[in-house]
C-alpha cells in the first residue's frame, strides 16, 4: 500500500474517532455511528442459516488496515544490552506473539492466545540459549533485563506494552525458582531423554489433553529432577510436602525449557501451545459478578419470565465484555454459572427459558452482535495488510448452553462429542428473546486501540 494512501486513511479515522469518542452514545452497540467503521467480512459468516454444514468461518476482525504492525514504525526497541538471550533464535515466535498480544486487544486475547504464546516464546528463548550457556534458567539480574527486553521487542512490533502484567509473568518466572538442577548435562543424566522426547517431541493436542502422555512424562521428569539432593523431612516417604510440590512445579518449567532446547523452535512452539491448551480448556476464565438480581427474579418459582430473562440478559452482558474464550471454556462457563445459579435457588433451566447460547458467554464481535468462540485447539491471530488482524471464530456454536444437572465437572476435549449437543435447528429461529440485547464491546476495544495511536 502506498504510504500516502494509508496516511490519509489514518487521518480520516482519527478525525472520525475523535468525533465518536466524544460521543458517549458511541460505546453502546446501538449507536448508528460506531459499527459502521467496524466491518466484519461476511464471506463465510453464515452460521445461522446452515448450521448443518461444517462451517470453517473466518471472521476478520475490525482492525482497520492503517494499523499495520510491521510496516508502521512503532519505535526501535530500547534493549538493555544486558540480556544473554539470542532473540533471533525465536524470531518468528516473537512476531506471532506481537500479533496475538496486539495493542489494546491483548487483554481480550490474553487467555486464548496472547499469554500462552508469550509464555511459549519465553520458554523457547531460554531453551535455545541453553545450547550456548548449558543453563536452563537465568539469574535474577539477567531475568529482569531479559523480560524487559522481550517486552521492548514485542512492543516495537505492535504488542501491548504491559504484557508482564496482563500475563502475570515476572522476572522470577525466568529463573530456576526452587528447582535444584538447571544444568543441561546434569538433567540429561537424570531424566530418560528418549522417553521424554518420545512422549513430547510431537503431540496431538486432542489426544494429549485426554491421555496426558506428555504431561505425565514431564511430571515424572520434574519429580526425578526435584529429588536431587532432596531429603524428605517427612518420616513417611510417600507423603509429598507442600514445599516439594512447589519444587516439582518449578522443575516442570525447567523440563519445558529442556524440551525447547532439544526441539527446533517451531516444533517446540507447537508442543508448548498444545500443552497450554489442555490447561486452559479445563477452566472458565470469566469472573462472575453478584447474581442476586437473577436469584430475585428467577429464584424458586418464576412468576414473571420476562423479568427473569431481563435479569439474565443483563447479567450475561456483564460476562460478554470480559474476554474471548474457547468453545470448551464456554461449556465450562455455562456449567459453572448454572451451578452457581442453582446454589442461589434458581432451580429451573433459565438457559432454556431465556435462550442462552454458548456463544453468549463470549465477547461479542461486530454489529452482528455475534459471539466469537475461539477453537479449543491452539490458534493465533494473524495479520495481513488489507484486513488487519484476524482470527478464526468457531461459529459452529449456535448451541444452547447446557444446564448442568449435577455438580460442576470440567469438560475436556475427550468428552467434546458427547457434551456439545447437535445443533438444534430451532435455536437460530428462536434466538430473539435473548440475543437481540447483546452489547458490543469490541467497538470499545477498537476505539481504545485507535486512541493509542492518536
Ligand atoms: C542466535 O541464533 C541464531 C538462529 O538460531 C544463530 O544463527 C546464531 O548463531 C545465534 N547467535 C549467537 C550469538 O548465538
Ligand atoms: C518479524 O517481524 C520483523 C519486523 O517487525 C520482520 O523484519 C521479520 O522478517 C519477521 N520475521 C519473521 C520470521 O517473520
Ligand atoms: C548473573 O550472571 C551474571 C553473568 O554470569 C553475573 O555477572 C551476575 O553477577 C549474576 N547476577 C546475580 C544476581 O547472580
Ligand atoms: C510466574 O510466577 C508466579 C509466582 O511468582 C505465578 O503465580 C505465575 O503463574 C507464573 N507465571 C507463569 C506464566 O508461569
Ligand atoms: C524418573 O525416574 C524413574 C526411576 O528412576 C525412571 O523409571 C523414569 O524413567 C524417570 N522418568 C523420566 C521421565 O526420566
Ligand atoms: C528410557 O525409556 C525407554 C522407553 O520408556 C526405555 O526403553 C529405556 O530402557 C529407558 N532407559 C533408561 C536408561 O532407563
Ligand atoms: C441489579 O439490578 C439493579 C437494578 O436494575 C442494578 O442497578 C444493579 O447494577 C444490578 N446488579 C448487578 C450486580 O447486576
Ligand atoms: C463491562 O462490564 C462491567 C460490569 O458490568 C462494567 O462495569 C464495565 O463498564 C463494562 N465495560 C465495558 C467496556 O463495557
Ligand atoms: C434459598 O432458599 C432458601 C429457602 O427458601 C432460603 O433459606 C435461602 O436463603 C435461599 N438462598 C439464597 C441464596 O437465596
Ligand atoms: C467424560 O465424561 C464422563 C461421563 O460423561 C465422565 O465420567 C468423565 O470424567 C469425563 N472425562 C473427562 C476427562 O472429563
UniProtKB/TrEMBL annotation:
InterPro entries: At1g61900-like (IPR040336), At1g61900_C (IPR059003), SPARK (IPR043891). Residues 1-26 form the signal peptide. Pfam families: At1g61900 (PF26584), SPARK (PF19160). Keywords: Signal. Residues 282-355 form the At1g61900-like C-terminal domain. One of its GO terms (cellular component) is plasma membrane. Residues 80-225 form the SPARK domain. This is Uncharacterized protein. It comes from Nyssa sinensis.
